[in-house]
Design brief:
The protein has 139 residues and is an alpha+beta fold. The protein is 28% helix and 18% strand. It has one domain: HIT family, subunit A, CATH 3.30.428.10. The structure holds guanosine-5'-monophosphate.
Length: 139
Amino acid sequence: MKDIFCRIIDGEIPSSKVYEDDDVLAILDISQTTKGHTLVMPKKHYDDFLSTPPETLHKVLDVAQRIGQAEMAILGAQGVNILTNVGPVAGQSVIHFHVHVIPRYLSGDPGFQITMKSQDIAAIDMLSLAESIKNKMEE
Ligand code: 5GP
């Protein structure tokens, strides 16, 4: 079965389009976490950030950057969160790669927060961890 974003891309479900070209679609997120919350996605289906080919990834990120710049300029936002979730455990609810562009406001911001808690790093062998990731990347 098609995911909801494939259905939007195919015109089966309406959306508020912010940007469209042959490869990329950007729409306002239905949740509007903050005013201007936008989703940028490839038209071709890939499940997530990690499985999207670099060329497509770069096109999506280029559009996300331009939307962030435009929103900072016209909406009075003082910052922006650019984020993408990979997998349900990381909060991905629609399995079709997309980047969230979430403008942030000094006043009137509903208070969306990403909190990164620290672990006890004494329990982690940091050098060996870094080395093992590096080695896998170089395979
Ligand atoms: P995720 O949780 O996968 O990172 O983000 C999915 C996003 O898609 C959510 O923020 C949700 O509000 C948005 N969304 C889900 N269904 C629709 C829809 O039908 N239209 C639009 N515009 N956004 C949707």
